[in-house]
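Q: HotDog ACOT-type domain-containing protein, please. Structure only.
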Amino acid sequence: MIIHSDLLGRCFVLAVWAFGVALLQPSQTALLDLMDVKMSQEIQSPRGQLLLRTLAMPADTNANGDIFGGWIMSQLDLAGGILAKEISSGRIVTVSVSSITFKKPVRVGDVVCCYGECTKIGRTSMSIDLEVWVKPIKEHGIEDRFMVCDATFNYVAIDSEGKPRPIQK
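A: Structure for HotDog ACOT-type domain-containing protein:
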């Protein structure tokens, strides 16, 4: 199904199948309410590029048996640092974390994927939005991925003396 809006802001739902397209009437769109939540999760996808992929191990757990939030934050900093170094073509340092939100726990054995995109470049600094998605591995195989954390990290390009240097745009 495709949701389309016209120039007046009216929304239309189109049902698409192998033989064509049909415009659904408002009464028929109530079917959308019955759609499984899983479908909306499958539509979501990570923002940015894959920067880091690793496996959550038992040594990375907290007292509850979940993966320690500090370990997740470390992976985010590594991933963001990779992108920041590529953008600045040189040495960078993390200067701050503007935000970080842990949405769901990560379990031992989950495949942890960090995605990111640069959202702002200044003269010497940049902001990178990051997301952590996991692919749980169960006895029957890998399940659908879902987001567990998002954050914004800020980096500064530095020279060999550790002083801020301009980023070549």
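A: Brief note, in case it's useful. The two ends are 41 Å apart (CA to CA).
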